[in-house]
């Protein structure tokens, strides 16, 4: 049992080492009544509230001490001459933070003024502004636009600049990057086009499932089946006209009237609660949103309306420039939420494959992972040099940690340089320090390469938020409720009547305002807008309207009306920097085949368990079939041997097909970024599987052929192996085609069983060919 509470307040408010409150419970060895001890530095009346009566105590100077005990609670007060006090501070809410017994509680009643509860709460705004200032001082020093202004800033904020110099300018990564650029001939050796992105009235709507009552429904096997449709139709016929279910088709607003202007050399942070459209906004900026039209029965026309423009070329939306589709895809590097990688490739091999496919210089200089090469530099910048020879891994295969795997996903897209980078929650699985380090590198890259970086984060720390130039805050329905400088975001919402609690940092505060929790923060008396309804908190639509009518919204519209600094639409000749991006694939077709085949072969060779199991399986099956039909002289038995061989091959192909669905997500990621042609990937995968097929044929076929007693000749044996191999290859590609079309592994298994059934029935062994009807014989 704790029986004594000590509370101490620092005498000097400017003393950071002692500022705030020190609260501690001291156990009483003799079980005496609870005592509350409070020490202050000057006169200040306080009231200690007990269940039965109040105790009024005056603080005393000159080292005097007074103690009053009532109802089992003892309060001790002391002071010292010459001590200064906080003139307008009080203790509040003590009863909520101190442990008390079931029968007693203590609290301070005077709440006219706030008492600082912690150092971080007192200086929260100053801390955030200081972080932003540090970051801008650093960028000004690293990339000075004017030498005189840089010198002035350095003189005024010498300590800040010195600390940031140590973190960025004097870091090993930046030194190696400068050395790499110097060897390459400077930035002129890797020119990137300067690009500005504008989103004009972009809205994205998708169809929703309707349950007949005008509400969305959760899709299930039953309500998406034809039986459910027939049942609904029967109910519609039997119901009265006024009781018939509605035929209304619902749509879901994913993005609503988005207007943005994204400038080069800038970092943009996308924040928002779940289902607010963060990923869709990033895909819209990257030109990756689906541009289908609504089916019949909807009042809408197209999913995507508005325009997304790169230097006045329409990427997606209305009036798309289709002839530049390849250019648009190559201008963007998109980092997805999911970490889809080949698990048996090492970290360095994953980066090398990306560089070989997207950057011809990486493939030709053959520097591999050396520090003076691009791959080695990226490994060092992301803190992966020490695990470069470790498997990436996944849930089944041991590899790097989850945070390191997330960095691999980012680095795979950083190997090749693009003027636009979109990162979807790149901090998943990372600690705060690693996230800040990576964002600092992205910030440096953005200014060095004149790149636009748009990144969404999940509950970022203040240090991470301070590294961004602007914040884009999304709310329900894809409404943008704020976009502007990072340091101005919280003040904007405070002016709208939303109080920031002491226990909430800036990022959490913005997320709370964007979610349904904003009603707990709203204070109507501080609202300077006219958009709230009947004194209640704003809706996402009213937030968006306030933004459009604010100076920020007006500034965005003015920026969109300005002429383009670089206009690709009206240029008589395409800029030289665009030439590498106009080429859809950086490698020739056969080079792409070689790269994909080499990668697939390495993955197969490293799957030791599968290879060993395959050897054991082939030997066991070959011996079993050989002993069953050993030296047979019955002609029908030879057909049985062939049937057993075909069945064995089909079963092997069917069981290995579901694993190919895991590779499909990796292929989609590579295909969206134009790593290689789809045909090159298919050919490379097929060629890489030839060693496995030869292993199956040689082991199984050799035992069967010689033990059963087929024609004793080399020519006959080779013909048998060739036929066996061709059938194995054909079945592998047939089931591979099924894996490319099926939506899930369960569908692949069901489809494979159906193909196996057809082949078993109509192969000519179980059912004689003369008995099979003519309309089935083609199978």
| Helicity level | 40-55%
Mean pLDDT: 75
By DSSP (H or I, 4+ residues per run), the number of helices equals: 28
Quickly give the structural class: alpha/beta
Low-confidence stretches: 1-122, 146-167
Alpha carbon gap, first and last residue: 84 Å
Number of E-type strands = 17
Numbering strands along the chain, what is their spatial order in the largest sheet? 13-14-15-10-16-17
Q: Specify the biggest β-sheet.
A: 6 strands, mixed
> What general form does the structure show?
globular
* Multimeric state: single chain
Range of strand content:
5-15%
**Rg over CA atoms:** 35 Å
Describe what you observe in this structure.
This protein is of the alpha/beta class and 779 residues long. Helices cover 44% and strands 14% of the residues. The protein is built from 28 helices and 17 strands. The strands form four sheets. The chain has a six-stranded mixed sheet, sandwiched between helices. Strands 2-1-3-7-6 form a five-stranded mixed sheet, with no helix packed on it. The protein has a four-stranded antiparallel sheet with strand order 9-8-11-12. Helix 4 crosses helix 5 (158-169), helix 10 (347-358) packs parallel to helix 13 (402-414) and helix 22 runs parallel beside helix 26. The longest helix has 28 residues, at 714-741. The protein is globular. Mean pLDDT is 75; it is low at 1-122 and 146-167.
């Amino acid at each position: 049992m704790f029986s004594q509470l000590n509370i101490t307040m620092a005498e000097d408010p400017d003393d950071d080492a002692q500022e705030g409150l020190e609260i501690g419970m001291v156990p009483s060895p003799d079980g005496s009544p609870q005592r509350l001890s409070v020490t202050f530095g000057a006169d200040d009346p306080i009231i200690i509230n007990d269940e039965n009566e109040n105790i009024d105590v005056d603080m005393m100077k000159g080292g005097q001490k007074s103690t009053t005990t009532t109802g089992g609670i003892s309060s001790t007060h002391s002071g010292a001459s010459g001590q200064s006090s906080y003139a307008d501070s009080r203790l509040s809410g003590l009863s909520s933070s101190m442990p008390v017994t079931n029968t007693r509680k203590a609290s301070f009643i005077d709440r006219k003024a706030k008492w600082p509860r912690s150092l971080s709460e007192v200086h929260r705004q100053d801390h955030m502004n200081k972080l932003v200032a540090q970051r801008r001082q650093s960028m000004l020093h690293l990339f000075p636009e004017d030498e005189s202004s840089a010198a002035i800033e350095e003189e005024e904020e010498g300590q800040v600049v010195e600390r940031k110099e140590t973190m960025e300018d004097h870091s090993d990564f930046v030194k190696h990057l400068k050395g790499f650029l110097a060897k390459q001939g400077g930035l002129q050796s890797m020119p990137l086009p300067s690009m500005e992105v504008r989103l004009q009235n972009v809205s994205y709507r998708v169809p929703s499932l309707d349950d007949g009552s005008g509400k969305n429904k959760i899709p299930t096997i039953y309500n998406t089946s034809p039986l459910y449709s027939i049942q609904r139709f029967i109910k519609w016929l039997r119901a009265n006209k006024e009781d018939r279910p509605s035929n209304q088709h619902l749509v879901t607003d994913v993005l609503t009237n988005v207007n943005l202007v994204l400038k080069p050399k800038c970092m943009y942070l996308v924040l928002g609660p779940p289902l607010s459209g963060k990923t869709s906004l990033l895909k819209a900026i990257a030109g990756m949103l689906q541009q289908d039209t609504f089916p019949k029965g909807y009042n809408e026309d197209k999913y995507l309306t508005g325009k997304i423009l790169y230097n006045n070329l329409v990427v997606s939306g209305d009036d798309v420039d289709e002839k530049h589709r390849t250019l648009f895809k190559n201008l963007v590097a998109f980092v997805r939420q999911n970490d889809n990688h080949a698990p048996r490739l090492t970290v360095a091999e994953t980066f090398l494959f990306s560089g070989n496919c997207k950057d011809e210089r990486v493939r030709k200089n053959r520097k591999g992972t050396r520090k003076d090469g691009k791959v080695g530099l990226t490994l060092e910048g992301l803190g992966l040099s020490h695990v470069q020879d470790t498997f990436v891994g996944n849930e089944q295969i041991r590899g790097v940690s989850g945070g390191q795997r997330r960095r691999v996903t980012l680095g795979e897209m950083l190997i090749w340089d693009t003027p636009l980078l979109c990162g979807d929650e790149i901090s998943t699985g990372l600690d705060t320090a690693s996230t800040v380090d990576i964002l600092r590198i992205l910030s440096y890259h953005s200014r060095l390469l004149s790149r636009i970086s748009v990144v969404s984060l999940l509950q970022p720390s203040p240090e991470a938020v301070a590294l961004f130039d602007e914040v884009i805050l999304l709310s329900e329905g894809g409404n943008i409720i704020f976009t502007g400088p990072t340091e101005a975001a919280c003040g904007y919402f405070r002016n709208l009547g939303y109080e920031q609690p002491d226990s909430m940092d800036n990022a959490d505060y913005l997320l709370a305002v964007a979610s349904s929790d904003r009603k707990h923060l709203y204070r109507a008396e501080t609202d300077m807008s006219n958009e709230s309804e009947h004194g209640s908190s704003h809706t996402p639509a009213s937030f968006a309207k306030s933004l459009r009518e604010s100076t920020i919204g007006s500034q965005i519209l003015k920026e969109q009306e300005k002429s383009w600094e670089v206009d690709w639409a009206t240029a008589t000749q395409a800029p030289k920097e665009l030439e590498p991006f106009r080429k859809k694939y950086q490698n020739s077709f056969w080079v792409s085949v070689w790269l994909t085949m080499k990668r697939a072969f390495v993955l197969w060779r490293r799957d030791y368990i599968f290879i060993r199991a395959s050897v054991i399986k082939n030997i066991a099956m070959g011996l079993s079939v050989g002993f069953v039909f050993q030296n047979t002289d019955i002609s029908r038995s030879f057909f049985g041997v062939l049937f057993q061989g075909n069945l064995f091959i089909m079963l092997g192909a069917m069981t290995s097909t579901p694993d190919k669905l895991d590779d499909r997500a990796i292929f989609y990621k590579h295909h969206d970024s134009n790593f290689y042609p789809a045909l090159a990937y298919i050919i490379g995968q097929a060629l890489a599987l030839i060693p496995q097929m030869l292993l199956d044929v040689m082991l199984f076929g050799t035992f069967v052929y010689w033990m059963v007693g087929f024609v004793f000749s080399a020519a006959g044996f080779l013909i048998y192996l060739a036929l066996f191999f061709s059938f194995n290859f054909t079945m592998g590609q047939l089931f591979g085609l099924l894996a490319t079309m099926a939506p899930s592994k369960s569908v692949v298994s069901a489809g494979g069983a159906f193909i196996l059934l057809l082949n078993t029935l109509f192969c000519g062994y179980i059912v004689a060919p003369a008995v099979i009807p003519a309309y089935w014989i083609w199978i």
